[in-house]
Structures are given as C-alpha cells and as structure tokens.
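In response to the reviewer comment on reproducibility (Comment 2.3), we provide here a single inverse folding case reported in full, input and output, so that an independent group could reproduce the run without further information from us. The structure tokens appear first.
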C-alpha cells in the first residue's frame, strides 16, 4: 500500500588508489525527485611513500669522510602528504630547511656544515597509514681542517757538531696511519 517503504541498497567497491566522491539521486514512480545526496571527498591509498636522498657533495676522500660541508635533499613521493608526519633523527643537530612541494613530490634539505661525525635516519607514514620502506641510516664525517705538523729537535739556521734527531708530530682528528704519509725533503748536495 501507500504506507509501504521500499529500501534498495547498492554496493560499490572503491579499490584503486584515487580521490573519490559520489552523488545519489532517485525518482519514484510518481515522478518525485529526491534531493541529491553527496559524499565528502575520500581517498583510497594503498601505496607506500617513496623516499630518495641526494647530496650536493659526493666527493668522499675515503669512504665516508668529506672535507667540505654537505647538504642532503630528502625527497618523498606521496599523494597524501603531511609534513608533520615526517620524522628525522639527526646526531649531532644539523640545519633543516623548509619543505617544498611539487605535485606528489615533497622535498626538505638538511645542511651538515660543522666538523662532526653525523648520523641520521628518517621515517614517514602517510595519512592512510602507509610507511616508507626501512631507511638505512646514513653516516659520514665532515672534516674541513688540515692536519698540523710540528717539527722539534732542530733549530733554524743552526750549526750542529753532533747528530741531529728531529721529531715530527702530525696531529689531526681523523688521522689514519694506513693512508697518511710524511714526505721529507733533504738537500741533494752537502755544503
């Protein structure tokens, strides 16, 4: 009869990554149109964020020793990005720049400028709960100071009747005997 209420249900699966919204309206047998029902926009995101790191200085002297400052650019590719969810653990502290955004690519810089042994790692979880793959911590040294050399046991312009036994002292925070050398130049002809 006229008092009967008919209900219809339809099921739609949103399985692919994307931003969605939809509207529903209907017309009954008497030609009455319903109001349009709308959803808010919602997102399906099953994709992990991708992190890439690049540096402005890749000129390592030995393995991970650099004689100049370095800047790391951390790039995160993610559609549903919020910079508040980015985590960086940096030891010792370094200068972190502001974020730049270009579509789904989001970048931040970390400037390592002091003579230090640096380690850092990053982590990010997007708004849908997807987390980056495990980030292998980065580790390197900035050492912009040259070694110092001190010679003792011989006086400038001295005349010596006996043996002269000078000592050479080399000092450096990152001195490695295996790759360091001392070059001594002697006159080729005695006086």
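Designed residues, in position order:
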């Amino acid at each position: 009869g006229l008092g009967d209420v008919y209900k219809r249900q339809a099921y739609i699966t949103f399985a692919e990554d994307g931003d969605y919204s939809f509207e529903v309206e209907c017309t009954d047998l008497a030609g009455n149109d319903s109001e349009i029902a709308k959803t808010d926009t919602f997102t399906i995101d099953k994709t992990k964020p991708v992190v890439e790191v690049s540096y402005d200085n890749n000129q390592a002297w030995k393995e991970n020793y650099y004689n100049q400052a370095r800047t790391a650019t951390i790039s995160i590719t993610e559609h549903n990005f919020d910079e508040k969810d980015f985590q960086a653990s940096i030891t010792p502290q370094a200068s972190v720049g502001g974020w730049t955004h270009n579509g789904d690519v989001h970048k931040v810089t970390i400037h390592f400028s002091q003579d230090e042994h640096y380690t850092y790692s990053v982590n990010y979880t997007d708004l849908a709960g997807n987390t980056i793959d495990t980030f292998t911590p980065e580790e390197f040294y900035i050492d912009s100071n040259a070694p110092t050399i001190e010679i003792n046991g011989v006086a400038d312009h001295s005349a010596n009747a006996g043996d002269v036994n000078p000592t050479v002292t080399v000092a450096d925070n990152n001195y490695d005997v295996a790759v360091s050398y001392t070059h001594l130049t002697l006159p080729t002809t005695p006086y």
